[in-house]
Amino acid sequence: MLKKNHRVRIAMQKSGRLSDDSKELLTRCGIKINLQQKGLIFFAENMPIDVMYVRDDDIPGLVVEGVVDLGIVGKNVLKEIFLEQKEKFKKSLLKVLCNLDFGTCRLSLSIPLNIEYSGLDYFQNKRIATSYPNLLKNFLDKKKIQFKLCSLNGSVEVAPRLNLADAICDLVSTGATLKENSLYEVETVYVSSACLISGLQEISIFKKNIIDKLITRIQGVIKAKESKYIMLHVPISKLEEVTSLLHGAENPTILKLANDQTKVAMHVVSSETIFWETMEKLKILGASSILVLPIEKMME
Length: 300
Ligand code: ATP
Ligand code: ZN
Known about the structure:
This protein folds into three domains: about 5-100 and about 195-225, D-Maltodextrin-Binding Protein, domain 2 (3-Layer(aba) Sandwich), CATH 3.40.190; about 105-190, Periplasmic binding protein-like II (D-Maltodextrin-Binding Protein, domain 2, 3-Layer(aba) Sandwich); about 225-295, Alpha-Beta Plaits. The protein is built from eight helices and 15 strands. The protein has helices spanning about 20-30, 60-65, 75-90, 135-140, 175-180, 205-225, 240-245, 275-285, and strands spanning about 10-15, 40-45, 50-55, 70-75, 95-100, 105-110, 125-130, 145-150, 165-170, 185-190, 195-200, 230-235, 255, 265-270, 290-295. It has a six-stranded mixed sheet with strand order 2-3-1-4-11-5. The mean pLDDT is about 95.
């Protein structure tokens, strides 16, 4: 086994909204983590990578301190910490290496359903419950709105019902929790998704190579998820029209068909999802045998 300082350490959320997607991402990148191991750190069997499972709020600190080299965390957590420490450090001690395609949500201001929203002025001097005081202040300061902060670490959505607050500023994805609590969203404060972060410390060339390899694989995984492999038979006379229907498709491969001189087979990678409507239009143009296949991995 390689020396400890030759292994790249990644911190990920132990359990919560980012944990399944973070684990799946590493699996898709071909990193085999043996979950039978005990303790805080799990070792990859096939790459010099170790994974540390922690609370998401601890991830930026662990990266800044150099306890881990990389972290997977929501941008909302990063931005909140950055705003909190801006005065102290002047600039961020972390950098985003790559954006990830999960953990999508927004930090929104929501108010009770029985109140008609009159615009941002509604929040003037109101009590707002949140776990993101810095993001909220940053947003409302810019709009010149004064507010009373009700800082809560969890269950922010119950604050209006308990008469602790007049509004909440919390993360929303589907809006189901808001609905359950008779609240509705009126302003978006910050749009977030997960990202891969690192600190600013110097790292060895060896580690840098591992990290670069990991980033290339992550980008390949994300691109593959967004892309489709399309195979179809196209009348030669309609080749141009068919190509222009398949947006995001570059350099299609054209192959001869064995028993049909009027059509060719076209194979193409599209960086966009192919909708039923597009397939129907292809059919009208005379295309046949249309297959849309998922792509597992991609490297350019
Ligand atoms: P931990 O126990 O690790 O501190 P937590 O309760 O703070 O967990 P989760 O609710 O699991 O955190 O959310 C983790 C991250 O998932 C959020 O910081 C955010 O980036 C993202 N996320 C995506 N959708 C949502 C959502 N609807 N509500 C909350 N967070 C969401
Ligand atoms: Zn947390």
